[in-house]
Design the sequence.
């Protein structure tokens, strides 16, 4: 190192490694000073936000392009798309500046983005040229727009979901081929059983006389969308024929669909375990790299000086308060030696990832204004009563009784006037809590149920004037707000709380699957708009046009599609297409009717579009989602605190500045918003408390952890502190059959 400038460069490089470990990024960046600075800028939140902004603008262009919900000239949409492509290319060039050339050109993601940009430009030029000479073209490149959402480094969670699909495909393909073989065998049997018997459907068409129609009807029967309609002609002819359909449903609907789920779940779990193991070792590898950059020798061991550790933490987390930073340093340097050893340094990314809430405990205003009255025996008795759990239970019972009264006929005067009683009780509850707890803490941003109680008082005040003015909309909103109070009762029960916590746990990762579904829906919607737009038209219910009876297409005359008034289900714009695809995902009777309807207005081959959508979304993606839900519940029920969380809580209690999360939940009502930026000082507990002046800490709720983070925590707990793991090349080439180390807890959970 040469002077301070070299130390600053080392600090930035180490911070890049720690930040990558913290957010599980796997970007092999150049280590030159300029590349490191560019890499920090690349990962800045503004750059990520700008990238997502242009991605969503690019996807939203389908709303304004023909067939459009809000039509704009082709010139306007093409300029917007070129701007988006320019932003994507700039982001790609930025990425190329921070990664080695060989790595950049070997990365499939970068090649996909470049190819998509080129193809989109070709399509824009071709389509624009055809439009100039009044020839209608096809904007086929619109279906490629989700490539940008998938392949930029910011979308690694969506890529992982797609990898789950890719890894599952080889095994599920064999099951799917066997399933198709079963459907074809049953189709041939149906042709021989029913084809020559002259049976007719309800519409009067021949029953089971064409092998392709039979195969389609039997495939739809697997979804139960056409049951029992498809079997009724045969069943009416002879009840023995029902055994054929019952056997088919048992084999293909129940057995094969269950096997699909089993195969998907087994592969998802196996590859999830492999990905989590890879992430854990990459994280360890990056932290070791950061340590090796900053280490100095003290005695016989290598360590990182306290000053550099502080600077590193501030570079990685610029907004961290000095009190929070001091707490983390006390955990990392327990002996107050002035340096952090290797074992404790490797925990830095985990320490920064754990949310430590800074709490500023305030005195009640009444305690300052009239301390003798507020601290008197009757006053303390009231406060003790309000803080007691029985007080919460009593009001939970009152909420349940109020719910019963809501369900009863409010036109009865006795029930109507009972609302005033409940309103009075809620006002008493609020006044008692405001007397016991500091008001600003009581109405803090995180005190959701207190705002609900206030809403209880508010809806009582609004309810009766609303009746006077007979405003039904106000009444509806108020009644909904009152019913929401029941959530408080549900969350107060431990078993219900576990389920609710698990649902919150899976929330962040559900967004990943939301992105996955959006990509698939968008691609199918674009294809559907290009193939089916203008084939079906919707007319207002009061329309007298004769075309309204056939959805604007004579081919639908006397069809079940037109009789069922499915005209609104069309591909004439992006929102309508997405709604139609949502209906197909539910797999009710719409599946058969929509497929038949669009086949009538185009070609029988159009049914392949709907079958393909069902296979991709319902059989593959929905089953992966179910596998994820199962894994989430297994992990949530075996959740334990991590070693790092335990260390933080232990240090918080040792310093005498701890507040238990349960105490806050049960009514201590300590606001966690107004955090003071003060450090620790003094040697004993009293001095520390005086220096803090009401500043306390607690670990934030574990309910916001993602399932992936919990599994990674389980795996990391089994890695010995001195274990540096395999080499980087070995880590990147892990396969699901590799188990390193053998981890009983992790193996059971994942």
Sequence:
């Amino acid at each position: 190192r040469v002077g301070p400038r070299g130390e600053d460069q080392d600090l930035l490089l180490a911070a890049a490694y720690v930040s990558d470990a913290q957010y599980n990024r796997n970007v092999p960046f150049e280590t030159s000073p300029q590349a490191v600075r560019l890499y920090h800028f690349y990962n800045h939140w503004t750059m990520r936000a700008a990238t997502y902004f242009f991605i969503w603008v690019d996807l939203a262009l389908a709303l304004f392009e023909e067939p459009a919900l809000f039509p704009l000239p082709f010139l306007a949409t093409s300029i917007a798309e070129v701007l988006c492509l320019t932003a994507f290319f700039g982001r790609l060039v930025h990425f190329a500046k921070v990664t080695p050339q060989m790595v950049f050109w070997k990365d499939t993601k970068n090649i996909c983005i470049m190819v998509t940009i080129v193809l989109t430009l070709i399509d824009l030029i071709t389509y624009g040229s055809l439009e100039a000479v009044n020839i209608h073209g096809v904007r086929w490149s619109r279906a490629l727009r989700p490539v940008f959402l998938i392949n930029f480094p910011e979308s690694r969670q969506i890529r992982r979901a797609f990898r789950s699909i890719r890894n599952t495909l080889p095994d599920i393909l064999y099951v799917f081929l066997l399933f198709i073989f079963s459907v074809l065998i049953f189709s041939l049997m149906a042709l021989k059983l029913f084809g020559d018997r002259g049976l007719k459907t309800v519409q009067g068409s021949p029953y089971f006389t064409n092998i392709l129609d039979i195969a389609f009807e039997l495939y739809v029967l697997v979804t139960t969308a056409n049951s029992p309609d498809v079997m009724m002609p045969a069943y009416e002819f002879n009840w023995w024929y029902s055994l054929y359909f019952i056997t088919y449903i048992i084999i293909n609907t129940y057995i094969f669909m269950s096997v699909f789920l089993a195969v998907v779940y087994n592969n998802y779990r196996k590859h999830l375990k492999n990905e989590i193991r890879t992430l854990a070792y990459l994280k360890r590898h990056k932290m070791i790299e950061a340590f090796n950059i900053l280490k100095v020798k003290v005695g016989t061991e290598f360590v990182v000086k306290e000053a550099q550790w502080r600077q590193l933490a501030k570079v990685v987390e610029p907004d961290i308060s000095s009190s929070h930073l001091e707490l983390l340093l006390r955990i990392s340097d327990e002996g107050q030696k002035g340096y952090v050893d290797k074992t404790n340094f490797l925990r830095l990314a985990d320490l920064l990832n754990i949310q430590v809430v800074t709490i500023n405990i305030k005195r009640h205003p009444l305690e300052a204004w009239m301390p003798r009255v507020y601290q008197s025996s009757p006053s303390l008795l009231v406060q003790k009563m309000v803080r007691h759990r029985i007080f919460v239970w009593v009001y939970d019972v009152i909420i349940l009784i109020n719910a019963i009264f809501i369900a009863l006929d409010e036109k009865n005067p006795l029930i109507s006037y009972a609302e005033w009683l409940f309103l009075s009780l809620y006002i008493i509850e609020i006044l008692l809590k405001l007397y016991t707890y500091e008001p600003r803490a009581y109405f803090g941003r995180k005190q959701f149920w207190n705002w609900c109680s206030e809403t209880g008082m508010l809806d009582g005040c609004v309810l009766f004037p609303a009746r006077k003015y007979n405003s039904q909309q106000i009444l509806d909103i108020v009644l909904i707000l009152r019913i929401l109070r029941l959530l408080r009762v549900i969350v107060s029960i431990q078993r219900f709380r576990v389920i609710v916590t698990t649902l919150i746990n899976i929330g962040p990762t559900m967004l990943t699957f939301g992105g996955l579904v959006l990509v698939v829906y968008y691609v199918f919607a674009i294809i559907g708009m290009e193939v089916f737009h203008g084939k079906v038209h919707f007319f207002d219910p009061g329309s007298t046009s004769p075309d309204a009876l056939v959805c604007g297409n004579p081919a639908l005359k006397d069809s079940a599609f037109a009789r069922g008034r499915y005209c609104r289900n069309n591909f004439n714009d992006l929102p309508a297409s997405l709604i139609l695809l949502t209906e197909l995902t539910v797999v009710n009777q719409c599946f058969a009717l929509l497929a038949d309807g669009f086949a009538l207005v185009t070609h029988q081959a159009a049914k392949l579009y709907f079958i393909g959508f069902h296979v991709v979304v319902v059989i593959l993606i929905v089953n992966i989602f179910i596998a994820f839900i199962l894994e989430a519940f297994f992990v949530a029920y075996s959740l334990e605190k991590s070693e790092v969380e335990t260390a933080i809580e232990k240090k918080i209690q040792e310093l005498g500045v701890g507040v238990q999360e349960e105490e806050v939940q049960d009514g201590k009502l300590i606001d966690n918003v107004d955090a003071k930026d003060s450090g620790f000082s003094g040697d004993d507990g009293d001095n520390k408390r005086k220096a803090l002046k009401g500043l306390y800490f607690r670990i934030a709720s574990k309910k916001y952890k993602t399932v992936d983070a919990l599994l990674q925590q389980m795996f990391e707990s089994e890695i010995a502190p001195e274990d540096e793991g395999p080499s980087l090349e070995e880590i990147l080439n892990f396969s699901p059959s590799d188990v390193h180390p053998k981890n009983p807890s992790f193996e059971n959970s994942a």
